[in-house]
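stage 2 :: seqdesign
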């Protein structure tokens, strides 16, 4: 669990795996805060984006930086929660979006990166799988 400092002095514990993405809050959301998307809910923290990045990284969360289709924000994504990366459909998303990160059938994030760039960022952030040790063949014993 990660302790997050919320506005008004509240402190909330968040499960590391629940983070989908975080970014600096937009001016119409909350001034001087960071928005954390936790799937079904959004939370706002008064901590800096760099401090939150460090907290999640220290807890073993594999993070990757992405660019929104418009603006100059940095969106920090939990790479482990991205299930699929698909090409952006300009009918549904901003013209500058080139890929869509799918976290679940109903939660997606459009990004400026291409599908190949997005997949490369996610792969680089995820831990390398340890090779599976081959089981040694057991000698055959005749049973009489």
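stage 2 :: out
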């Amino acid at each position: 669990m990660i302790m997050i400092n919320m506005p008004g002095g509240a402190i909330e514990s968040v499960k590391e795996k629940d983070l989908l993405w975080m970014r600096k809050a937009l001016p119409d959301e909350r001034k001087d805060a960071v928005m954390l998307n936790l799937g079904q809910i959004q939370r706002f923290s008064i901590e800096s984006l760099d401090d939150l990045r460090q907290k999640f990284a220290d807890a073993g969360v594999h993070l990757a930086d992405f660019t929104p289709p418009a603006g100059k924000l940095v969106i920090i994504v939990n790479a482990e929660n991205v299930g699929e990366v698909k090409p952006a459909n300009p009918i549904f998303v901003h013209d500058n979006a080139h890929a869509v990160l799918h976290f679940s059938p109903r939660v997606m994030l459009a990004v400026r990166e291409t599908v190949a760039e997005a997949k490369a960022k996610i792969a680089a952030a995820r831990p390398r799988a340890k090779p599976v040790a081959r089981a040694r063949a057991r000698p055959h014993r005749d049973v009489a």
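stage 3 :: structure notes
- The two ends are 57 Å apart (CA to CA).
- The CA atoms of residues 115 and 132 lie 29 Å apart.
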